[in-house]
Write a structure and sequence with these properties.
The complex is a heterodimer of chains A (about 375) and B (about 425).
Chain A: H1 28-49, H2 52-77, H3 85-105, H4 112-118, H5 133-157, H6 162-182, H7 184-187, E1 198-199, E2 202-203, H8 207-233, H9 235-245, H10 247-252, H11 257-283, H12 293-306, H13 313-331, H14 336-350, H15 355-362, H16 368-379
Helix pairs in contact in A: 1-8, 2-8, 2-11, 2-12, 2-13, 3-5, 3-11, 5-11, 8-9, 8-11, 9-11, 12-13, 13-14
Chain B: H1 2-25, E1 46-53, H2 60-79, E2 87-94, H3 99-111, E3 118-120, H4 124-137, E4 141-143, E5 156-158, H5 167-176, E6 181-187, H6 190-205, E7 209-216, H7 224-233, E8 237-241, H8 246-256, E9 266-268, H9 273-279, H10 281-284, E10 288-291, H11 300-313, H12 321-340, H13 345-351, E11 356-359, E12 362-367, E13 372-374, E14 378-382, E15 388-393
Parallel strand pairs in B: 1-2, 1-3, 3-4, 4-5, 6-7, 6-8, 8-9, 9-10
Antiparallel strand pairs in B: 10-14, 11-12, 12-13, 14-15
Helix pairs in contact in B: 2-12, 3-4, 12-13
Amino acid sequence: MTAVAGPPVTDLAPDASPPPTVRRPRPRLRAAAGFALGAALLFAVAPLVLSDFRLSLLAKYLCLAMVAVGIGIAWGRGGLLTLGQGVFFGLGGYAMAMHLKLADAGPGQMPDFMQLYGQLDELPLWWRPFASPWFALPATVLLPMAVAFGLGSLVFRRRVRGAYFAILSQALAAAMVILLVGQQGTTGGTNGLTDIQGFFGYDLDDPVNQRTVYFLIAAVLLALLALARQLVQSRYGELLVAVRDCEERVRFLGYDPATVKLVAYVTAAGMAGLAGALFVPAVGIISPALIGIVPSIEFVIGVAVGGRATLLGPVLGAVAVAWARTALSERFPGTWTYLQGGLFVLVVAFLPGGLASLLARRNGLGPLARLGRRRTEVAG
Amino acid sequence: MSLIRGRRLLAGALTLVAAAALAACGSKTTDTDTAAGASADVSGDTVKVGLLNSLSGTMAISEVTVRDAIMLAVEEINAAGGVLGKKIEPIGEDGASDWPTFAEKAEKLISQDRVAAVFGCWTSASRKAVKPVFEKNKALLFYPVQYEGLEQSPYIFYTGATTNQQIVPGLDYLKAQGVKSVYLVGSDYVFPRTANKIIKAYAAANGMTVVGEDYAPLGSTEFGTIVNKVKASNANAVFNTLNGDSNVAFFKEYTSAGLTAATMPVVSVSIAEEEVKGIGTQYLANQLTAWNYYQTTPGAANEKFVAAYKKKYGADKPTSDPMEAAYVSVHLWKAMVEKAGSFDVEKVRSAADGITFEAPEGLVTVDGATQHIAKTARIGKVGADGLITEVWSSGQPIKPDPYLKSYPWASGLS
């Protein structure tokens, strides 16, 4: 999965997931048509056919899809199995929720829960900057990126890889949950930050504003997809794949794999942060239950189900997994967890390349795996 | 060729996203706009109610028993002709021990199923997550679990104890027993932390000292350190707000450290009959609990409740306080609706004050101002048979006071 020191590329284990499809840049027109279709579906079809409730659920799924786009880059392209994206999602979400709670409370006031559980007389120092949208909004993205940069620079330089990196990223998620729960007076503890009323002056209870939040989320997801596509097709994107498949070779070619991986990790963190920030107005809550080990693994499961090495696979997977969760649990409240687990097993057993590979087969394109392997050989 | 492939993948994938979204929608025609405030659908000859409990995840073991008790009440009411001539149609949803899921399912029950009321939630975190949903849609939630107080939503009826009906009587009991020092042990979440704040305020005003305070993460089973600290503190008693599995590990460690109910009694507020079974009676012998109801509570209403429950779910299934409160909540809702003559939420709310019900725990009365109910406090002792028997009771229902306004020592708390 991750870089194996030494052996040539053709020696990749047969069960390794489909290597990347390194493509030459396509004509802009075709990509633009694809995005236009996506935009039409998200902006015209979905709002027309979905009720307000279902649309708000779709908004939630799309936020999870943003995290998935980032994991697609870090794990699918870069081989960094990050089991702690919840941390970055949470940092973005909490930054946004703190600002919205302060805005709800009004200038000079404290959020409701602080008096209840914290018995504080004044706002804690570290909350204060979040009163300003000029600080809070950039922080939703920059804070996760900074944390990812700090952790990434430490571990990638020391050549911490594979399972060790995965464990480390997961430990970070566990630590963050313990920290948040322990500081109940200032973080809301297990309750998290709830009961968010307004979003920059707009009442979130108003269905029209909920719809606007959905449109904002859909637009941001499309923008992130465009960004991911640019990144993947750039020279950097190829270098990232090269690092994943054979880190040592890249090193001997004169590149620093640590920097290459760091960029992917920080990008994924930024995307997760943005997703967390948009999740808050869409769902109205951010809590430790959303950012711990289990949700962090669920993010990765979505990407695996969709197909981690493709551009759209992670988005598809994240939306499909979240939708299946809702649909199954509504229909079979008592047994849905077994059904969901069964679906995961089926996908992993029969579609190791994820849903995206199913799609490719249907279109008569042949398995992506073979396609990619041949290409990689050429590239190697 | 690769160009075409790429484009098709993109287009096809987006189609799939849309298909998924459409499928999620189901039939659009039955969907209603939440904008309208989603009033209950009572046009048919049934009335739908929502059951929102965790059927999966860490809380399932407790919340499933609450669901069972609600179902029992629904069956009883349906057998007696329903509510306002309509049979109750229960719609179950799984909160999955996950707070945002609770919020999602609450929204679904209100806006898609258009239920007349929702019964459920256990943890305070799940209640805090659904509270804005019920307030936004002006829909009703009946919350059946004892909790930390300091809350009063116009769209929630609290049928479990608030702090002045459970924790404060528990402290009064300890004080009467001559306890001068307590050690506080709890799980690390909102209820124990808030309860302990109240206990500390009470202790300060009543000449008790709190000699230690420790929190373990929810689900933690490592209590060696905490029990050693408790033992070294020589406190007169321990006030235990641990929840779930942690109690098993705590009491095993407690017993093996040589501590017993005779040397240092423990008062627990989250251990009911169901949990006693799980922990093992040998570790809990003669320890104290504070609740409003026990399976052994005398009275014809309780005999009927226990017999009906065991008949439906098995003779080995005990009944407990949260189950009883959940069972009572359905009957209270029925009484409110019948007094209001309507399922309309605002009418039901204004009819609520003074509604009484001959509950298994004794007569309960709804307090319209706080939307809590007056309940009798009971201190119990765990017996060798795993049942809890009452050693002290307040004798009469205590009026709910969620913000502890009538207690001068609590003035700084809310």
